[in-house]
User: Fold this.
Amino acid sequence: MHKLSTIVAVAVSSVLMSACGAAGGAEDPSTSPPSKGASGDTLIVYTNSNADGRAEWLHDEAAKAGFAIEVVGQGGGDTTNKIMAERGNPVADVVFGLNHMYFSTLVAGDALEPYEPSWSGDVDADLADPSGDGNFWPLVQQGIVLAYNAEVFSPEEAPQNWTDLWNDERFDGRYESVEGLGGATTQLIFAGILDDYKDPEGDLGISDEGWAQIEGYFEHGSTVVPEKDLYLRIAEGEVDMGQMFTSGIPSRETEFGVDSEIMRPEHGIPFAVEQIAVVKGTDQAERAHEFIDWFGSAETQTAWSAEFDSMPVNKGAIANADPAIVKFHEELKQQEIDWSFAAEHIASWIEKVELEYVP
Amino acid sequence: MSRTPVRTMVRSPFVLVVGVILTWFVAAFLVWPNANLLIETFFPGGKFSGRAVEKLTSSDRAMKSLFNSFLLAVTLAITTNIVGVFIVLVTKYFDIRGARILWFGYATTFIYGGIVLAAGYKFVYGESGIVTGALLGVFPGLDPNWFTGYFAVLTVMTFATTTNHMLFLSSSLAKVDHQTIEAAQNMGAGTFTILFRVVLPMLRPMLFATTILSFLTGLGALSAPQVLGGRDFQTITPMILTFAGSPTSRDLAALLAVVLGVATILMLAIMGKLEKGGTYFSLSRVSTSLARQKITNPLANAVVHGVAYVLFVIYLVPVVLIILYSFVDSRTIQSGTFSIDKMSLANYGRVLGHGASLRPFLVSVVYSAAAAVIVVGGLLFVTRILSKYRNWLTTVFEYLLHIPWILPAAMIALGLIMSYDHPNPLVGTFVLTGTTVILLIAFVVVKIPFTLRLLKASFASVNASLEEAATLMGASSLYTFRRILFPAVLPVAAAVLALNFNSLLDDYDTAVFLAHPLFQPLGLVIKANTDGAASLDARANTFVYTVLLMVITGLTMYLVYGRATATGKRRARLRVPVPVSLPADEATS
Assistant:
């Protein structure tokens, strides 16, 4: 009797414990085949461009065009890291929305499969993969700018260059500075600033003068307040300016009642160009190609732009887009930045800034 | 509790089977993936790289943040215990008017935390907060930003992390034998002598556990320093998370995490030594349940009442504000200018409006519930063995089970991907990445140390004489476990289950790497809808999700803990009769 109950105890406990491991998926509605994570015919699309209804819109429109897709959305850095981590057994079929710096990281990590979409002739080749191998292709562009309160500064009084912010006393403490280089917008701005201070002899390819600029940026800025929008801080008079992406300006001006203008440096401003690519190792390459052909087409990009106020890259879509948006972007001068240099060093720059300059 | 040789221990089939499964699980999911990640990190290309040590020691900011984290950990372990013990005593031990109402106020920490909690306190004490406004009226010279830095962070975190006291210390207190208190009273001891000399010493196992947990919470502080720390008080966790995200800086993250991990292990070792030194259960043979104590000194009574109600207000106000703010637009939330006429249901409509919005809730509930049940169920057996047998083998396992405390969740997820994106003999040649199982495994793994600590403390406070009596009467080990030990640790197990469930509901760090594309949990959706850079509605969405989570977690706490409290009387009745009600056939077989 005693023995028997012990045996029962053993059996029960082993069943309970084994649930921790291999059989753990039993509680889930489905346990998919372990070989390939994605399910059947559904295309798995990774993106950071999923907020404000974009994911739902894309899912529905793709379904109408005959594509069953599942959108997996998270920030640009997380999406990049996730694709890099999954290289051994890729889950995603297509990735889009990340800027060219993130895509360059993916190319360097051999995580993408080159493909030339049917619309490749309709986009500005300068905005696509700088290597010329056609690893990724542009969809949407926007300027990364310094926005300032037009009631405080006239265009002449306003800073003319990022470096004016910390080298001119008038702007001391009046601009919002970030806490680190983690964000995509910030990375593009720093890539633009540091591009002027390239020095093969310098630390991480940047001259001492360049690093002095970074020090100045953090020393003279007003640190970003968590949970508080830049435009609210401008409206309340805490600061007069800060970094912004062009598509975010109109809605914020309305929301916070701020009349803002953007800084127009002589050498131009960095552009964030959102790209699309096939993930290496997809088992649905053909469907992925068809999806990219559809999504980047003039027709789909026109609809996307109309829905989400973005500035398309496809010439056919530009022709149909909101003239105000097109005019605004065409007036912006794009800064020439050595992107392959920036992409190569950005990770070590982030680290150095985090360790040495962030207050 | 005496030392048992390993040879004797493994003679029990129960130990043997649990041991084999435990060994496999620890090897496959705790040791191998994390060792893999650390080796890859510190020995890139097979050669040791001391880069991380050099980089970090030469960074003033890293050293200062590390110091701040330790400062916070040590002080928080003290302050949380003071506040935690106080609120447990006023709700469960002293005879205080309105103790039940007070309990609900203090229990608000069960249902919310993180960035929203910090934001909630900022609404009250921040530059445009209510209290700051009132203070400025009295002291016009006050700096509106008075509530920032170390003091603010410590204050908020002290109040925010008393959950463990409320749940587990209360449960231990309920087991204190009233007869010991009566005996002390008969010998002429006063209210506070009894408290400090009789009652608190009996709570030591659980106080050790809560001290370790508070220390760990302070060490890993993230959102409170970010929101309230200002330039002068930043902690190390934000830096760890930044570096963990970048493949080339991961060695820095790993090194920092290991430093914190070693500190935690040291803390565990010290507490373990202290824990061995005492006897924690009542020596009387028949225990009677605790009766509330009157505070005889009228002045002391008034002071305790006053402090209890002040704390009640401190606890309650941020929650009320968060609920109110969830009904107003982002701009109002950010500027802190609340008024009734700005309230509407628009935020809730936006978050819950489309058809698919309930699915992530369901996915998260299933994952969190499955993980919580597995981890608590499995560890009940494991903890039982670890607390019954003391030898080098159980000590090794106990430390191995704490591995998930050493590394941040994101790195545990990366280790799992790295180790199981190809067939591996440890898991029977299955490829785990891209399946629904891998997130469940990660959820179970990250909850092991917390569960183990509390279950162990709970087992330690079970009156050993009951078990001895059962064994002497011939009850089998499973029968003893099921009828004696299990009921005794059930309240704690249930509370741990609920807390694990609640904390996994909005997990982002592991899900972002491991979630199956077709079964995306809530954390990913929340993040997408509350990321400030993306949208102006982000702030308002954060509050809506927080309130929705409060509803779910509040419901969970009620189902699990509310009912456990309600059955407190039954438990008290059970505790005594169980040993005598052994069925004759079992007892004599």
Remarks:
- Chain B has two domains: 1-43+355-589, 59-325.
